[in-house]
Amino acid sequence: IQSPASQFRLGMSLLPWVIKPPKLDFDRTIERITQWGHAARLQGFLSLESDALNEEEPLLRRGLNLLVDGTEAKVLQDILDAELHLEKERLLRAAKVFEAMGGYSPTIGIVGAVLGLILALSNISNPDE
Predict the structure, then answer these.
(1) What's the average model confidence in pLDDT over 36-45?
(2) What distance in Å separates the CA atoms of residue 97 and residue 1, rounded to the nearest whole number?
(3) DSSP-H helix ranges across 22-57
(4) By CB count within 10 A, which of 39, 44, 64, 69 is most buried?
């Protein structure tokens, strides 16, 4: 009710990621970026085309494709910064779904307790039931 349906679906689609986030290997990522730098220096940016096709990480794949296409460094940085910003905003919208759920959870518990008391007290005149 508080979130648009698209935002709610986004939050629910990320639920497995929230419960069990992927393991990030920063050392391996830094190593791969370093290898790409050496390859680009020795053989040129076009040598990174096969790496771009095989890259699983979307942002790295996008960066490699931009390098292979000959994008200037400043433009490349601006594009990747913008994409990072958009992804951060998308994830923050999804997080608001869970934040709202956390706010409503105590209310749902209280409603359940009140309903239980009403049912229990409705039979107080006839304790045999």
Answers:
(1) 94
(2) 10
(3) 26-43, 49-54
(4) 64
Contacts of 127 (CB under 8 A, 6+ apart): none
Query: Which one-letter amino acid corresponds to residue 41?
Result: R
- Phi-psi group of 70: left, alpha or beta (phi > 0 → left; psi -120 to 50 → alpha; rest → beta): left
Q: What whole-number distance in Å separates Cα of residue 100 and Cα of residue 35?
A: 44
Q: 């709202």: which residue's tokens?
A: 100
14 is in which domain, residue-wise? 5-103
Higher per-residue confidence, 94 vs 127: 94
pLDDT given at position 129:
62
What is the spatial distance between Cα 35 and Cα 41, in angstroms, rounded to a whole number? Answer: 10
Give the span between the Cα atoms of 61 and 54, in whole angstroms: 8
Cα-based angle 119, 125, 129 (whole degrees, multiple of 5): 65
* 115 domain residue, yes or no: no
Count of structural domains within the chain: 1
**Contacts with 33 (C-beta within 8 Å, 6 or more apart), sequence order:** 60
